[in-house]
Design brief:
Blueprint lengths: L20 H9 L3 H6 L21
Length: 59
């Protein structure tokens, strides 16, 4: 029996990944560093997004 995939909420659209880097990077500044680095698993587009953040709190 084939598994049925659940429908993506909101039509499966990823609107955040469509944002330009000039908007995405300031947003990443406002979340904790660990969460910022963990965004790299979201997609290829996000793989190195955290590297462009000028200030990482490593405490």
């Amino acid at each position: 029996m084939a598994e049925r995939r659940e429908e993506e909420p909101y039509g499966g659209e990823d609107k955040i990944s469509d944002l330009p880097d000039s908007i995405l990077h300031p947003i990443l500044l406002f979340i904790p560093t660990l969460d910022t680095v963990q965004t790299c698993i979201l997609s290829k587009r996000w793989r190195y997004a955290w590297c462009a953040i000028p200030m990482l709190d490593l405490d």
